[in-house]
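dumping this here before i forget
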Amino acid sequence: MMLPKIKLDKISKILPVIGIITFGLIIYYIGIEKIAYNFTIIPLEYYVLSFLLFIPGLLLSALAWQYICKKHKMDFSLFYLVKILLISTFYGILTPGGIGNHIRIFVFV
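structure:
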């Protein structure tokens, strides 16, 4: 029995919508006041530290992707790969289960 082919472009367009709806429901049920309060009680040093750790991690991921791309005879700049990783991270945050992180596949296909 053959499974029907699923159009990946349709899936990539609907996943962020599902993620935004889920995110909206979470905010609605928890309450924006509680969420804002929890962000205000976190010391500023933790935000700075997380940002300082995020940048090297992002650059290392981009370098790893650049290495993989070069092995497959694809030439992408580091800046372009950082941009793609940021976009896929954004989609990963919006979609349930981080499925949106795999949106970068569509760039290389």
